[in-house]
Each structure stands twice: as structure tokens, then as C-alpha cells.
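Weekly puzzle thread! Below is a chain. First person to post its structure in C-alpha cell form gets bragging rights.
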Amino acid sequence: MDFRERYLSFMKSRLGDLSGLDFAVDCSCGMASLLVEDLFPGASTINCGLDGSFPAHSPNPLAAEAREQISRLVRERGLDCGVIFDGDADRCMFVDERGGFVQPDFLIPFVVPLGGNKVIHDVRTSRGTIDFIRAHGGEPLMVPVGHVFAKKVLRESGAIGGGELAGHYYFRDFHCCDSGILAAIRILGKIAESKRNGASFSQMVAPVKGRWANSGERNYRCENKDAAMERVKSAFSGEVNNLDGYRIEMPEGWISVRKSNTEPYLRLIVEAESDALMRSWIEKAERAVNEG
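Winning reply:
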């Protein structure tokens, strides 16, 4: 049985109209290399030879240096966007027409239809994304970070899909699993549609980014992560969600502090209504972390 052809057939059946879209794909020398030429024959492609030593760059697109090549290619060729896959292609991330990184949680509303559907997102997700889902008829469901939790909630809640800050996107019609390939197909289709309607990729995402200044995920090594989390929680006044670490909601924004599931880090995200307030909250949180 040729599983590759079955897989390609499944993905092609979900491939929308990409006509007129000029884009690039970086396979990171990973598993997306097996599929990109068949799925995206008109795309500009780089690092599409399988090599587990990952000679071109880190296979983790969250690392800024891993995105330098795709960003440069998009700028030099005047493309509409670029997509980069991680090593095993269960994650994808995008750069816009200017080569700027598009934070993965901003794209959650574009991977699944929103109207009348439950959509999952993790505790690190921007308030702009959550508000956008609600404004377009969806019901956002917050879940802890990690595929184990996301898949469980998808199965139990009847949610149609959703995503995470780390670039994982989940789909009910993909056995409630994550797929970087399917996510890229859905997002590219939305970008192509937006272009036909006269709006660039960055303009398409602008309503989601909204008025919030977002720090992205920041990592801190500390001896006692539990004590540090408690100090951060005590430093701010707001409604506390303890689904995964603490997410402290305030009218002017929110703060998430949690222990990494996979690395020896305390992870912090700050989102606020201005850059100045975001920076002040980061400094306040860092003082609380370092007090111990």
C-alpha cells in the first residue's frame, strides 16, 4: 500500500485556490521535503533535501536564525509570504510579504472555519486572537500547552480544531491530530483569497494583532520555578487562570507564567495595550522571578 499517495490525495483534496499567490517554502531539510514539490509545484523552495543533520539551519522555526533564509528570499523576490516547516513537519510558521515573522497564535483563526464552531487555543494565545474568534462567531476554548491536552479536548468538546503559540495546529478532520502540512494549506488559501481581495498578508493579520503589544515567549532559568511563579502571581492584581501555570488577566492586558513541560525553564509572556506598559510589566515580572 502506497501511503504517500494516499496522504497526498488527502491533502490535495483540501488544497484551496492558490492562483496568483507568489510564495516560498523552506523545508528545513526535514520531512516536508517529501511532499512540497507535489503539493506546491509553483512555489520557490529551499532546503528540500532530506538531511537529519539539518545543515542549513535549526529545524525549529521558533529560533529567529532559522527564519533568516526564508525572510531574505521573500524580500529579495518580492513574494507574498513564506512558510517554514520544522524537522518533522508537524509545525509550520509564516513570514509576511516584508519577511516579518507572524506569531503562530495570530494565525489560529485562519486554519479552521470560525462561525458556529468551537476553536481551541493554548494559555499563551493573544487576546487579539481570542477576541477575533468570538467576533466571527466562534467559541474559543483555552487548553494547557501540549498535544496531549489539545487532542483530548478536541475529542471531548467537539471542537473543529485550533492551534498553539508553538506552531502546532490541530484538526478534527485529521483524526484530532496536528499537521503542519494541512495548516500551511489552509493558511496559504486564506492569504491567496486575501490577495485577490486587495489585501496583503500583513493586512489580513492586522485585525488579529489589533492593539496589543506582545512580548512573545521569554525563558528564564531559576532554581525554584514553583516559588518564582508564586512571586510573579503575587506581583500582579487580576483574574487568575491556573489551567497551566498562571495566566493573569487584567483590563490592560495579561501575563502568563508557566513551567516548561520539556525544558528546565520558566516561561513568561506579557501582552499589554502599549509597548511601554508591556516593557514595565516584563521588568516587574523579571524582578519577581529573580528575587529568589
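Puzzle host: Confirmed. Bonus trivia for everyone else. The first strand starts at residue 23 and ends at 26.
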